[in-house]
Amino acid sequence: MTTATASASATASPPAPSSAPVRRPLLDWRIRFGALCLIWGFSFLFIKVGNEAFAPLYVTLGRLLFGTAVLLVTLAVKRERLPRGARVWGHLAVAAFFLNALPFSLFAYAETTISSTLAGICNAASPLWGMLLAVVVVSDDRPTRRRVAGLGLGFIGVLIVLGAWQGFSGQDPLGTGLALIASASYAVGWQYVRRTLSHTGHSHLSMSGGQLLLGTVQLALVTPVFAATPTSFPVLPLLAVLALGALGTGVAFLVQYGLVDEVGPTTAMMVTYFVPVIATAAGVAVLGEHLTWNTPVGAAVVLIGAALTQRRPGPR
Question: Burial of 86 by CB count in 10 Å (0-12 exposed, 13-18 middle, 19+ buried)?
């Protein structure tokens, strides 16, 4: 997801004011929307392939490193600077942990025991966690009947995916739990960003560049201590990590920002509901992962529930 990270960062601050004329994008927003769905959907496949040769923490470190490189190069080309101020960097450090370092690592560890398909579906539960957190913990959101029903429906969908009626047989409980915790971490990060970094005056690109840079530093300090250093770099897993970072994190951020500015955050966030579909198709077609009837059915229920939790009452 990947989706959660870019979306949270995209709402972190309003675009920096500029007097330059607005350039029309070369590609229609629908084409970029579809490309973003593909990039984030295939991210779970890239994680799976990367895990074949590298420890999960090194997969995550490579992802953040290559993603950060893309954003820093873009900052240099656009002649923008990283954010300033100790307070902003402190909040960005927390955001980087909950939106990048922690969930990226948990998904990587989860995919050592579960399929990329299941990981992609667990990622779609992020809006459900966000709704639950907003209502139960933060208490600043309206728990309408529709949204509460969506929350309940979403978690029923998760139980269907896991095959609860047959004792969760065939699914690793630890790996599944890690993936669900990762999706919950996105929700915590969203709430934190919204409350602390909403009006900093820095551009989306600047804030996200700083956030990914801090996430990279966090992983760089931890990874050598808890994971064995790679002794070889097979081509295919290395390319998977490169694509995961450069495309699935760096380029995806840039595409997401353009979509938010052009069509608004609500439409741009619809990518969340296509990612598990792409992840499932990629896992089955490319990796040959086994798919039972309850996986797509449960995923559909999860997505319907997630969509309902995002519906807000209109003005009277």
Answer: exposed
Instruction: Specify the pTM.
Output: 0.84
How far, in Å, CA of 292 to CA of 225, rounded? 39
**Which helix H or strand E contains 200, and what residues bound it?**
none
As a whole number of angstroms, the distance between CA 92 and CA 190 comes to 12
pLDDT digit string (tens) for the chain, length 316 residues: 544 444 444 433 333 444 444 566 677 888 988 899 899 999 999 999 999 999 999 999 999 999 999 999 999 999 999 998 899 999 999 999 999 999 999 999 999 999 998 899 888 888 888 878 877 766 555 667 777 787 788 778 877 877 766 665 567 889 999 999 999 999 899 888 888 887 777 888 899 999 999 999 999 999 999 999 999 999 999 999 999 999 999 999 888 877 877 777 666 677 877 888 888 889 988 998 887 777 788 888 888 877 777 655 555 4
CA nearest to 312, candidates 184, 186, 194, 141: 141
Task: Tell me which H or E stretch contains 1.
Answer: none
CB 201 within 8 Å of CB 16? yes
Q: Is residue 76 within 8 Å of 210, Cβ to Cβ?
A: no
Residue tagged 């269907």 (tokens):
160
Nearest to 98 by CA among 245, 196, 229, 200: 196
Tell me which amino acid residue 224 is. Answer: P
